[in-house]
Amino acid sequence: MDRAAIAARIAEVIEPFNKNGIAITETTSFAGDLEWDSLTVMDFVAAIEDEFDIIISMNQQAEIETYGQLIDAVTTLQG
Amino acid sequence: MNDMTPTDMQETDLFSKFDALIETRRSLLATGVTDPFSLVMEKVLSPTTAICSGRETILLGTYNYMGMTFDPDVIAAGKQALDDFGSGTTGSRVLNGTYAGHRAVEQALKDFYGMDHAMVFSTGYQANLGIISTIAGKGDYIVLDIDSHASIWDGCKMGDAEVVPFKHNDIEAMEKRLKRIPEGAGKLVVLEGVYSMLGDIAPLKEMIRIAKENGAMVLVDEAHSMGFIGPNGRGVAEDQGVLDQVDFVIGTFSKSVGTVGGFCVSNHPKFEIMRLVCRPYVFTASLPPSVVATAATSIRKLMHAGAKRTHLWENSRTLHKALTDLGFKLGTAEPQSAIIAVIMPDLERGAMMWEALLREGLYVNLARPPATPAGMTLLRCSLCAEHTAEQVAIITGMFERAGKAVGII
Protein backbone atom coordinates (compact mmCIF):
# COMPACT_ATOMS: atom_id res chain seq x y z
CA MET A 1 0.00 0.00 0.00
CA ASP A 2 1.42 3.41 -0.92
CA ARG A 3 1.54 6.48 1.28
CA ALA A 4 -1.56 8.06 -0.28
CA ALA A 5 -3.64 4.93 0.25
CA ILE A 6 -2.45 4.67 3.86
CA ALA A 7 -3.25 8.36 4.40
CA ALA A 8 -6.78 7.83 3.11
CA ARG A 9 -7.39 4.84 5.39
CA ILE A 10 -6.02 6.69 8.44
CA ALA A 11 -8.32 9.62 7.61
CA GLU A 12 -11.26 7.22 7.70
CA VAL A 13 -10.21 5.90 11.12
CA ILE A 14 -9.81 9.48 12.43
CA GLU A 15 -13.32 10.47 11.29
CA PRO A 16 -15.36 9.12 14.27
CA PHE A 17 -12.74 10.51 16.72
CA ASN A 18 -12.81 14.00 15.18
CA LYS A 19 -15.77 15.22 17.22
CA ASN A 20 -15.28 18.90 16.40
CA GLY A 21 -14.95 18.31 12.65
CA ILE A 22 -11.47 19.88 12.45
CA ALA A 23 -10.01 19.98 8.92
CA ILE A 24 -7.11 17.50 8.88
CA THR A 25 -3.79 18.36 7.23
CA GLU A 26 -0.34 16.75 7.43
CA THR A 27 0.59 19.06 10.32
CA THR A 28 -2.61 18.62 12.35
CA SER A 29 -1.55 17.50 15.84
CA PHE A 30 -3.62 15.00 17.81
CA ALA A 31 -3.12 16.51 21.26
CA GLY A 32 -3.01 20.17 20.23
CA ASP A 33 -5.39 20.63 17.28
CA LEU A 34 -7.79 17.73 17.84
CA GLU A 35 -7.56 18.16 21.65
CA TRP A 36 -7.56 14.42 22.30
CA ASP A 37 -6.95 13.31 25.87
CA SER A 38 -4.85 10.26 26.72
CA LEU A 39 -7.89 7.94 26.76
CA THR A 40 -8.97 9.02 23.27
CA VAL A 41 -5.41 8.59 22.03
CA MET A 42 -5.37 5.06 23.43
CA ASP A 43 -8.62 4.10 21.70
CA PHE A 44 -7.43 5.70 18.47
CA VAL A 45 -4.08 3.91 18.53
CA ALA A 46 -5.90 0.59 19.09
CA ALA A 47 -8.14 1.35 16.08
CA ILE A 48 -5.12 2.14 13.88
CA GLU A 49 -3.32 -1.00 15.08
CA ASP A 50 -6.32 -3.16 14.22
CA GLU A 51 -6.87 -1.42 10.84
CA PHE A 52 -3.31 -2.11 9.68
CA ASP A 53 -2.56 -5.20 11.81
CA ILE A 54 0.52 -3.55 13.34
CA ILE A 55 1.86 -2.63 16.79
CA ILE A 56 2.60 0.99 17.60
CA SER A 57 4.38 0.70 20.97
CA MET A 58 4.22 3.51 23.56
CA ASN A 59 7.87 4.20 22.72
CA GLN A 60 6.97 4.80 19.06
CA GLN A 61 3.85 6.79 19.95
CA ALA A 62 6.01 9.31 21.79
CA GLU A 63 7.53 10.29 18.42
CA ILE A 64 4.18 10.69 16.66
CA GLU A 65 2.41 14.02 17.18
CA THR A 66 0.82 14.84 13.82
CA TYR A 67 -1.26 13.17 11.10
CA GLY A 68 1.71 13.35 8.73
CA GLN A 69 4.03 11.67 11.21
CA LEU A 70 1.44 8.93 11.79
CA ILE A 71 1.18 8.25 8.04
CA ASP A 72 4.97 7.96 7.86
CA ALA A 73 5.10 5.64 10.88
CA VAL A 74 2.37 3.35 9.55
CA THR A 75 4.02 3.28 6.12
CA THR A 76 7.29 2.19 7.74
CA LEU A 77 5.65 -0.35 10.07
CA GLN A 78 3.80 -1.89 7.14
CA GLY A 79 7.21 -2.56 5.61
CA MET B 1 26.27 46.22 22.69
CA ASN B 2 24.96 43.64 25.08
CA ASP B 3 25.17 44.42 28.77
CA MET B 4 22.95 41.53 29.83
CA THR B 5 24.57 39.37 32.47
CA PRO B 6 23.48 35.83 33.28
CA THR B 7 21.65 37.11 36.37
CA ASP B 8 19.38 39.23 34.17
CA MET B 9 18.14 36.29 32.17
CA GLN B 10 14.55 35.24 32.73
CA GLU B 11 14.62 31.85 34.36
CA THR B 12 12.07 29.26 33.25
CA ASP B 13 10.00 28.12 36.19
CA LEU B 14 10.16 24.34 36.09
CA PHE B 15 7.01 24.25 38.22
CA SER B 16 4.82 25.91 35.56
CA LYS B 17 3.93 22.43 34.28
CA PHE B 18 1.94 21.89 37.50
CA ASP B 19 -0.17 25.05 37.11
CA ALA B 20 -3.29 23.24 35.90
CA LEU B 21 -3.21 20.86 38.87
CA ILE B 22 -2.52 23.70 41.32
CA GLU B 23 -5.56 25.54 39.93
CA THR B 24 -7.83 22.45 40.14
CA ARG B 25 -6.78 22.00 43.77
CA ARG B 26 -7.21 25.69 44.59
CA SER B 27 -10.74 25.84 43.16
CA LEU B 28 -11.74 22.61 44.92
CA LEU B 29 -10.51 23.85 48.31
CA ALA B 30 -12.11 27.27 47.66
CA THR B 31 -15.51 25.58 47.93
CA GLY B 32 -14.65 25.13 51.63
CA VAL B 33 -14.28 21.36 51.45
CA THR B 34 -11.70 19.65 53.71
CA ASP B 35 -8.55 18.67 51.79
CA PRO B 36 -9.07 14.95 51.10
CA PHE B 37 -5.34 14.41 50.60
CA SER B 38 -3.98 15.70 53.89
CA LEU B 39 -5.89 13.76 56.53
CA VAL B 40 -3.96 12.98 59.72
CA MET B 41 -4.67 9.99 61.93
CA GLU B 42 -3.96 11.31 65.41
CA LYS B 43 -4.24 7.93 67.07
CA VAL B 44 -4.89 4.46 65.66
CA LEU B 45 -7.07 2.37 67.97
CA SER B 46 -7.34 -0.87 65.98
CA PRO B 47 -7.20 -2.13 62.38
CA THR B 48 -10.66 -0.62 61.87
CA THR B 49 -10.76 2.55 64.02
CA ALA B 50 -8.67 5.70 64.49
CA ILE B 51 -8.97 9.22 65.89
CA CYS B 52 -9.12 11.80 63.07
CA SER B 53 -9.62 15.49 63.89
CA GLY B 54 -10.41 14.53 67.48
CA ARG B 55 -13.18 12.07 66.69
CA GLU B 56 -13.36 8.31 66.51
CA THR B 57 -13.53 7.23 62.88
CA ILE B 58 -14.24 3.87 61.27
CA LEU B 59 -11.50 3.06 58.74
CA LEU B 60 -12.85 1.80 55.40
CA GLY B 61 -9.96 2.72 53.14
CA THR B 62 -6.76 1.15 54.45
CA TYR B 63 -6.17 -2.08 52.43
CA ASN B 64 -5.62 -3.63 55.84
CA TYR B 65 -7.69 -6.55 54.53
CA MET B 66 -6.78 -9.16 57.13
CA GLY B 67 -6.45 -6.78 60.09
CA MET B 68 -2.96 -8.00 60.98
CA THR B 69 -1.58 -4.61 62.12
CA PHE B 70 -2.51 -5.13 65.79
CA ASP B 71 -2.14 -8.91 65.93
CA PRO B 72 -0.43 -9.66 69.27
CA ASP B 73 1.98 -12.24 67.80
CA VAL B 74 2.96 -9.84 65.00
CA ILE B 75 3.57 -6.97 67.45
CA ALA B 76 5.60 -9.24 69.78
CA ALA B 77 7.80 -10.41 66.89
CA GLY B 78 8.51 -6.81 65.91
CA LYS B 79 9.42 -5.76 69.45
CA GLN B 80 11.71 -8.75 69.87
CA ALA B 81 13.50 -7.94 66.59
CA LEU B 82 13.99 -4.33 67.67
CA ASP B 83 15.68 -5.59 70.85
CA ASP B 84 17.76 -8.24 69.10
CA PHE B 85 18.74 -6.52 65.85
CA GLY B 86 18.26 -2.77 66.35
CA SER B 87 16.16 -0.21 64.51
CA GLY B 88 17.58 -0.49 61.00
CA THR B 89 20.09 -2.26 58.78
CA THR B 90 21.68 0.85 57.19
CA GLY B 91 22.63 -1.24 54.20
CA SER B 92 21.77 -2.85 50.89
CA ARG B 93 20.57 -6.44 50.80
CA VAL B 94 23.71 -7.39 48.85
CA LEU B 95 26.11 -5.78 51.32
CA ASN B 96 25.43 -5.43 55.05
CA GLY B 97 21.62 -5.38 54.84
CA THR B 98 20.68 -9.07 54.90
CA TYR B 99 19.92 -10.23 58.46
CA ALA B 100 18.49 -13.56 59.59
CA GLY B 101 15.03 -11.94 59.49
CA HIS B 102 15.29 -11.13 55.77
CA ARG B 103 16.07 -14.76 55.00
CA ALA B 104 13.26 -15.87 57.33
CA VAL B 105 10.63 -13.73 55.64
CA GLU B 106 11.75 -14.99 52.21
CA GLN B 107 11.37 -18.55 53.52
CA ALA B 108 7.88 -17.68 54.81
CA LEU B 109 6.97 -16.41 51.31
CA LYS B 110 8.32 -19.56 49.64
CA ASP B 111 6.22 -21.66 52.03
CA PHE B 112 3.15 -19.45 51.59
CA TYR B 113 3.22 -19.62 47.77
CA GLY B 114 4.80 -23.07 47.42
CA MET B 115 7.48 -21.60 45.15
CA ASP B 116 11.23 -22.06 44.86
CA HIS B 117 12.41 -18.45 45.08
CA ALA B 118 11.41 -15.29 46.95
CA MET B 119 13.04 -11.89 46.84
CA VAL B 120 12.02 -9.11 49.23
CA PHE B 121 12.15 -5.44 48.25
CA SER B 122 11.81 -2.39 50.46
CA THR B 123 8.37 -1.54 48.99
CA GLY B 124 5.83 -3.11 46.63
CA TYR B 125 6.43 -0.22 44.25
CA GLN B 126 10.11 -1.15 44.04
CA ALA B 127 9.26 -4.82 43.45
CA ASN B 128 7.35 -3.98 40.25
CA LEU B 129 9.80 -1.27 39.27
CA GLY B 130 12.79 -3.57 39.74
CA ILE B 131 11.54 -6.85 38.29
CA ILE B 132 9.83 -5.40 35.19
CA SER B 133 12.61 -2.97 34.26
CA THR B 134 15.28 -5.66 34.73
CA ILE B 135 13.78 -8.68 32.96
CA ALA B 136 12.34 -6.87 29.92
CA GLY B 137 15.20 -5.22 28.05
CA LYS B 138 15.99 -3.71 24.68
CA GLY B 139 14.17 -5.50 21.86
CA ASP B 140 11.78 -7.27 24.24
CA TYR B 141 8.04 -6.47 24.38
CA ILE B 142 5.90 -5.81 27.44
CA VAL B 143 2.18 -6.36 26.83
CA LEU B 144 0.15 -4.92 29.70
CA ASP B 145 -3.36 -3.95 30.76
CA ILE B 146 -4.02 -0.22 30.31
CA ASP B 147 -5.35 0.04 33.90
CA SER B 148 -2.10 -1.24 35.43
CA HIS B 149 -0.79 0.30 38.65
CA ALA B 150 1.66 3.22 38.50
CA SER B 151 4.51 0.99 39.72
CA ILE B 152 4.04 -1.27 36.67
CA TRP B 153 4.02 1.68 34.27
CA ASP B 154 7.09 3.15 35.94
CA GLY B 155 8.85 -0.22 35.67
CA CYS B 156 8.08 -0.19 31.92
CA LYS B 157 9.34 3.37 31.58
CA MET B 158 12.57 2.63 33.42
CA GLY B 159 13.42 -0.34 31.19
CA ASP B 160 14.27 -0.37 27.49
CA ALA B 161 11.55 -2.72 26.24
CA GLU B 162 8.82 -1.83 23.76
CA VAL B 163 5.63 -1.16 25.75
CA VAL B 164 2.31 -2.29 24.28
CA PRO B 165 -0.87 -1.66 26.33
CA PHE B 166 -4.25 -3.25 25.66
CA LYS B 167 -7.80 -2.36 26.75
CA HIS B 168 -8.63 -3.32 30.33
CA ASN B 169 -9.36 -7.04 30.78
CA ASP B 170 -9.88 -7.41 27.00
CA ILE B 171 -8.67 -10.93 26.15
CA GLU B 172 -9.00 -10.45 22.38
CA ALA B 173 -7.12 -7.12 22.39
CA MET B 174 -4.29 -8.76 24.33
CA GLU B 175 -4.14 -11.75 21.96
CA LYS B 176 -4.07 -9.55 18.83
CA ARG B 177 -1.11 -7.58 20.17
CA LEU B 178 0.80 -10.70 21.21
CA LYS B 179 0.38 -12.16 17.73
CA ARG B 180 1.74 -9.00 16.07
CA ILE B 181 5.03 -9.03 17.99
CA PRO B 182 7.98 -9.83 15.68
CA GLU B 183 9.13 -13.43 15.77
CA GLY B 184 11.96 -14.16 18.15
CA ALA B 185 11.39 -11.13 20.41
CA GLY B 186 11.14 -11.72 24.18
CA LYS B 187 7.61 -11.20 25.52
CA LEU B 188 6.37 -10.35 29.01
CA VAL B 189 2.65 -10.15 29.76
CA VAL B 190 1.90 -8.08 32.88
CA LEU B 191 -1.46 -8.54 34.62
CA GLU B 192 -3.01 -7.87 38.01
CA GLY B 193 -5.20 -10.28 39.96
CA VAL B 194 -7.38 -7.54 41.42
CA TYR B 195 -7.42 -4.07 39.86
CA SER B 196 -7.49 -1.76 42.85
CA MET B 197 -9.48 1.14 41.43
CA LEU B 198 -12.74 -0.68 40.67
CA GLY B 199 -12.01 -3.84 42.66
CA ASP B 200 -12.59 -6.08 39.65
CA ILE B 201 -10.59 -9.24 38.94
CA ALA B 202 -8.85 -10.33 35.74
CA PRO B 203 -9.83 -13.36 33.62
CA LEU B 204 -6.37 -14.79 34.34
CA LYS B 205 -7.17 -18.36 33.25
CA GLU B 206 -7.89 -17.32 29.65
CA MET B 207 -5.28 -14.59 29.50
CA ILE B 208 -2.47 -16.75 30.84
CA ARG B 209 -3.38 -19.60 28.48
CA ILE B 210 -3.17 -17.22 25.51
CA ALA B 211 0.06 -15.65 26.79
CA LYS B 212 1.65 -19.09 27.05
CA GLU B 213 0.38 -20.17 23.61
CA ASN B 214 2.16 -17.11 22.23
CA GLY B 215 5.44 -17.81 23.99
CA ALA B 216 5.23 -15.04 26.59
CA MET B 217 6.38 -15.08 30.21
CA VAL B 218 3.72 -13.93 32.67
CA LEU B 219 3.97 -11.59 35.66
CA VAL B 220 0.91 -11.16 37.89
CA ASP B 221 0.63 -8.49 40.58
CA GLU B 222 -1.43 -10.01 43.41
CA ALA B 223 -1.11 -7.08 45.83
CA HIS B 224 -4.86 -6.86 46.48
CA SER B 225 -5.64 -10.57 46.75
CA MET B 226 -3.01 -12.05 49.06
CA GLY B 227 -4.39 -13.73 52.14
CA PHE B 228 -8.03 -14.06 51.17
CA ILE B 229 -8.50 -14.98 47.47
CA GLY B 230 -7.78 -18.58 46.42
CA PRO B 231 -7.92 -21.81 48.48
CA ASN B 232 -4.65 -20.91 50.25
CA GLY B 233 -4.93 -17.13 49.94
CA ARG B 234 -2.30 -17.08 47.19
CA GLY B 235 -4.43 -14.87 44.97
CA VAL B 236 -6.59 -14.77 41.87
CA ALA B 237 -4.24 -17.00 39.82
CA GLU B 238 -4.55 -19.72 42.47
CA ASP B 239 -8.33 -19.21 42.60
CA GLN B 240 -8.57 -19.75 38.83
CA GLY B 241 -6.23 -22.75 38.97
CA VAL B 242 -3.38 -21.23 36.96
CA LEU B 243 -0.78 -20.24 39.56
CA ASP B 244 1.60 -22.91 38.20
CA GLN B 245 1.57 -21.07 34.84
CA VAL B 246 2.62 -17.72 36.37
CA ASP B 247 6.34 -17.02 36.03
CA PHE B 248 6.48 -14.13 38.53
CA VAL B 249 4.07 -13.16 41.29
CA ILE B 250 4.51 -9.65 42.67
CA GLY B 251 3.11 -8.83 46.09
CA THR B 252 3.29 -6.45 48.99
CA PHE B 253 3.52 -6.45 52.78
CA SER B 254 1.58 -3.18 53.02
CA LYS B 255 -1.90 -4.64 52.57
CA SER B 256 -2.97 -8.02 54.02
CA VAL B 257 0.42 -8.59 55.67
CA GLY B 258 0.03 -5.31 57.57
CA THR B 259 3.49 -3.70 57.41
CA VAL B 260 5.60 -2.40 54.51
CA GLY B 261 7.73 -4.07 51.83
CA GLY B 262 7.32 -5.83 48.50
CA PHE B 263 8.30 -9.13 46.96
CA CYS B 264 8.55 -11.34 43.92
CA VAL B 265 8.15 -15.13 44.08
CA SER B 266 9.07 -17.38 41.18
CA ASN B 267 10.00 -20.89 40.12
CA HIS B 268 12.40 -19.67 37.43
CA PRO B 269 15.61 -21.72 37.82
CA LYS B 270 17.84 -18.67 37.27
CA PHE B 271 15.82 -16.33 39.50
CA GLU B 272 18.54 -15.74 42.13
CA ILE B 273 20.64 -13.73 39.65
CA MET B 274 18.06 -10.96 40.08
CA ARG B 275 19.71 -10.11 43.41
CA LEU B 276 22.77 -8.87 41.55
CA VAL B 277 21.24 -7.20 38.50
CA CYS B 278 18.06 -5.58 39.81
CA ARG B 279 18.96 -1.99 40.66
CA PRO B 280 15.94 -1.07 42.85
CA TYR B 281 16.93 -4.12 44.97
CA VAL B 282 20.66 -3.38 45.11
CA PHE B 283 20.81 0.39 45.44
CA THR B 284 18.55 0.92 48.44
CA ALA B 285 18.63 0.06 52.12
CA SER B 286 16.89 -3.15 53.17
CA LEU B 287 13.83 -3.25 55.40
CA PRO B 288 14.36 -2.75 59.16
CA PRO B 289 14.60 -5.96 61.25
CA SER B 290 11.31 -5.23 63.05
CA VAL B 291 9.49 -4.93 59.72
CA VAL B 292 10.69 -8.26 58.32
CA ALA B 293 9.97 -9.95 61.66
CA THR B 294 6.37 -8.66 61.71
CA ALA B 295 5.96 -9.63 58.03
CA ALA B 296 7.24 -13.20 58.53
CA THR B 297 4.96 -13.74 61.53
CA SER B 298 1.97 -12.27 59.71
CA ILE B 299 2.54 -14.33 56.53
CA ARG B 300 2.74 -17.57 58.53
CA LYS B 301 -0.49 -16.69 60.36
CA LEU B 302 -2.21 -15.90 57.04
CA MET B 303 -1.65 -19.52 55.99
CA HIS B 304 -4.21 -20.54 58.61
CA ALA B 305 -6.68 -17.67 58.46
CA GLY B 306 -9.71 -19.48 57.03
CA ALA B 307 -12.23 -18.04 59.50
CA LYS B 308 -11.02 -14.46 58.98
CA ARG B 309 -11.14 -14.94 55.23
CA THR B 310 -14.76 -16.15 55.38
CA HIS B 311 -15.75 -13.15 57.51
CA LEU B 312 -14.01 -10.70 55.12
CA TRP B 313 -16.02 -12.08 52.20
CA GLU B 314 -19.23 -11.80 54.25
CA ASN B 315 -18.40 -8.14 54.92
CA SER B 316 -17.69 -7.46 51.26
CA ARG B 317 -20.92 -9.10 50.08
CA THR B 318 -23.03 -7.38 52.76
CA LEU B 319 -21.73 -3.88 52.06
CA HIS B 320 -21.85 -4.35 48.28
CA LYS B 321 -25.53 -5.36 48.47
CA ALA B 322 -26.43 -2.59 50.94
CA LEU B 323 -24.83 0.17 48.83
CA THR B 324 -26.41 -1.22 45.65
CA ASP B 325 -29.84 -1.30 47.35
CA LEU B 326 -29.37 2.35 48.46
CA GLY B 327 -28.93 3.31 44.80
CA PHE B 328 -25.17 3.96 44.66
CA LYS B 329 -23.36 3.16 41.42
CA LEU B 330 -20.56 0.67 42.12
CA GLY B 331 -17.47 -0.33 40.14
CA THR B 332 -18.58 -3.96 39.80
CA ALA B 333 -22.06 -5.51 39.54
CA GLU B 334 -21.04 -8.27 41.96
CA PRO B 335 -18.45 -8.15 44.77
CA GLN B 336 -15.25 -9.59 43.26
CA SER B 337 -12.75 -8.60 45.97
CA ALA B 338 -12.57 -6.71 49.28
CA ILE B 339 -12.61 -3.39 47.40
CA ILE B 340 -15.93 -1.69 46.72
CA ALA B 341 -15.62 1.38 44.50
CA VAL B 342 -18.49 3.89 44.69
CA ILE B 343 -18.61 5.93 41.49
CA MET B 344 -19.09 9.69 42.04
CA PRO B 345 -20.65 11.98 39.42
CA ASP B 346 -17.67 14.40 39.51
CA LEU B 347 -14.68 15.46 41.61
CA GLU B 348 -16.53 18.25 43.43
CA ARG B 349 -19.42 16.07 44.60
CA GLY B 350 -16.95 13.26 45.27
CA ALA B 351 -15.01 15.54 47.63
CA MET B 352 -18.28 16.72 49.25
CA MET B 353 -19.38 13.12 49.79
CA TRP B 354 -15.94 12.22 51.16
CA GLU B 355 -16.17 15.06 53.65
CA ALA B 356 -19.78 14.23 54.60
CA LEU B 357 -18.67 10.67 55.37
CA LEU B 358 -15.72 11.92 57.43
CA ARG B 359 -18.12 14.08 59.46
CA GLU B 360 -20.21 10.97 60.03
CA GLY B 361 -17.07 9.28 61.33
CA LEU B 362 -16.07 7.19 58.30
CA TYR B 363 -12.82 7.28 56.34
CA VAL B 364 -12.75 6.07 52.72
CA ASN B 365 -10.22 6.75 49.92
CA LEU B 366 -11.05 9.49 47.46
CA ALA B 367 -9.51 8.49 44.12
CA ARG B 368 -9.34 10.80 41.11
CA PRO B 369 -7.66 10.94 37.70
CA PRO B 370 -4.99 10.10 36.67
CA ALA B 371 -5.03 7.22 39.18
CA THR B 372 -8.55 6.20 38.10
CA PRO B 373 -9.67 4.69 34.76
CA ALA B 374 -11.82 6.72 32.31
CA GLY B 375 -11.46 9.97 34.28
CA MET B 376 -13.70 8.72 37.11
CA THR B 377 -13.88 10.07 40.65
CA LEU B 378 -14.27 7.18 43.09
CA LEU B 379 -14.87 6.67 46.79
CA ARG B 380 -12.93 3.49 47.35
CA CYS B 381 -13.90 1.31 50.26
CA SER B 382 -11.68 -1.57 51.34
CA LEU B 383 -13.08 -3.96 53.89
CA CYS B 384 -11.21 -5.61 56.72
CA ALA B 385 -11.68 -9.06 58.26
CA GLU B 386 -11.81 -7.23 61.61
CA HIS B 387 -14.83 -5.09 60.66
CA THR B 388 -17.74 -6.44 62.71
CA ALA B 389 -21.16 -7.03 61.17
CA GLU B 390 -22.35 -4.17 63.40
CA GLN B 391 -19.71 -1.81 61.93
CA VAL B 392 -20.82 -2.73 58.40
CA ALA B 393 -24.41 -1.82 59.37
CA ILE B 394 -23.20 1.50 60.84
CA ILE B 395 -21.20 2.19 57.65
CA THR B 396 -24.32 1.58 55.54
CA GLY B 397 -26.27 4.15 57.60
CA MET B 398 -23.46 6.68 57.20
CA PHE B 399 -23.47 6.24 53.42
CA GLU B 400 -27.23 6.67 53.32
CA ARG B 401 -27.22 9.95 55.28
CA ALA B 402 -24.18 11.38 53.48
CA GLY B 403 -25.46 10.32 50.05
CA LYS B 404 -28.81 12.01 50.64
CA ALA B 405 -27.21 15.16 52.08
CA VAL B 406 -24.96 15.55 49.04
CA GLY B 407 -27.72 14.57 46.63
CA ILE B 408 -26.02 11.55 45.11
CA ILE B 409 -28.83 9.12 45.97
TrEMBL record, chain A:
Annotated TM spans: none
InterPro entries: ACP-like_sf, PP-bd_ACP
Domain Carrier: 1-78
Highest taxon of the lineage: Bacteria
Protein name from the UniProt record: Phosphopantetheine-binding protein
Organism whose genome encodes this protein: Novosphingobium fuchskuhlense
TrEMBL record, chain B:
Keywords in alphabetical order: Pyridoxal phosphate, Transferase
GO molecular function: pyridoxal phosphate binding; transferase activity
Gene3D superfamilies membership: Aspartate Aminotransferase, domain 1, Type I PLP-dependent aspartate aminotransferase-like (Major domain)
Pfam families, alphabetized: Aminotran_1_2
SUPFAM superfamilies the record matches: PLP-dependent transferases (SSF53383)
Residues covered by the Aminotransferase class I/classII large domain: 57-393
InterPro entries named among the record's database cross-references: Aminotrans_II_pyridoxalP_BS (IPR001917), Aminotransferase_I/II_large (IPR004839), AON_synthase_class-II (IPR050087), PyrdxlP-dep_Trfase (IPR015424), PyrdxlP-dep_Trfase_major (IPR015421), PyrdxlP-dep_Trfase_small (IPR015422)
Protein origin, superkingdom: Bacteria
Co-factor(s): pyridoxal 5'-phosphate
Family per record: Belongs to the class-II pyridoxal-phosphate-dependent aminotransferase family.
Protein name as it appears in the record: 8-amino-7-oxononanoate synthase
Organism: Novosphingobium fuchskuhlense
